[in-house]
């Protein structure tokens, strides 16, 4: 069937099918949100415990370990999937590059900007990371046309507003709590839909 034979209803149906196909293929079974959600949650809680124990010189360690582990797992899975699937949609590529850039900026902030003195102290890291995660999650939601994920992404921005008024000592706990509705809930919803499909 060529384009000239499509009536407006058929065109709309094709567009909706393409969006749904992209949503399914891009979101996979929710594993990226679930994996990164749990890894960041563990890093937040472990870092908070390190701060609570006043062993500040080890505060980078949970992030290096958990984010390094996530990076390795993500690379292996993406490499495996790339070899299986020869063609990627524009949306898949856009989301992939969005998160490569967001992740790179987060890495730079945590492991270069603060040690180099570009950002003054650890107090601002969680707020900046939440802003970046919020942008990445909101844009991803719009690319896959999923309103629930878009609305849940606002938890990242609400967390940043809360951090303005709450002691920096608790910022990692706020970030950890935010991960649940902003990463884990959409991830598990996607996994549930994937299993049903």
Describe this structure as you would to a colleague.
The protein is mainly alpha-helical. It has one domain (29-189). The chain is 78% helix and 0% strand. It contains 7 helices and no strands. Helix 2 runs antiparallel to helix 7, helix 5 packs parallel to helix 7 and helix 6 (147-165) packs antiparallel against helix 7. The two termini are 27 Å apart. The mean pLDDT is 87.
How are the elements arranged and paired?
Elements: H1 8-27, H2 31-52, H3 61-84, H4 90-113, H5 125-143, H6 147-165, H7 171-196
Helix pairs in contact: 2-3, 2-7, 4-5, 5-6, 5-7, 6-7
Descriptors for this entry?
197 residues, mainly alpha, 78% helix, 0% strand, elongated
Oligomer: single chain
Rg computed from alpha carbons, rounded to a whole number of angstroms: 19 Å
Helix content: over 70%
Share of residues in strands: under 5%
Number of spatially distinct domains: 1
| Uncertain runs | none
The number of helices is 7
Q: Report the average pLDDT across residues.
A: 87
**Shape descriptor:** elongated
CA-CA gap between termini: 27 Å
Helical/strand content category: mainly alpha
Task: Tell me the major beta sheet.
Answer: none
Quantity of strands, as a count = 0
Order of helices and strands: HHHHHHH
